[in-house]
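Hey, sorry to bother you again with one of my protein questions. A protein chain has come my way and I'm curious about its shape. I'm sending you its amino acid sequence along with the backbone structure tokens. I owe you a coffee for this, so here goes:
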Amino acid sequence: MKEITQYLCQGTQHICHSKPDRACRGGRDLQLQVFAALGVIDKPTDEALHGANQDFLASHAHQSGPEKAT
């Protein structure tokens, strides 16, 4: 369990054996539980993670600045 938790918390997603275009559901559920326990997201749901991702992207959008036209 420790190895799985470390694997998921390092930002790695295991690709599911039955749906190769998606992350493993079991791995995602564990990752959501860990993120919720750490306070990264409010509750262990895909929706909470999506919202946190959108908030993060919006807060960092101004840092990259507009692209220069060539």
About this structure: The CA atoms of residues 32 and 44 lie 5 Å apart. The chain has a mean pLDDT of 77. The radius of gyration is 15 Å.
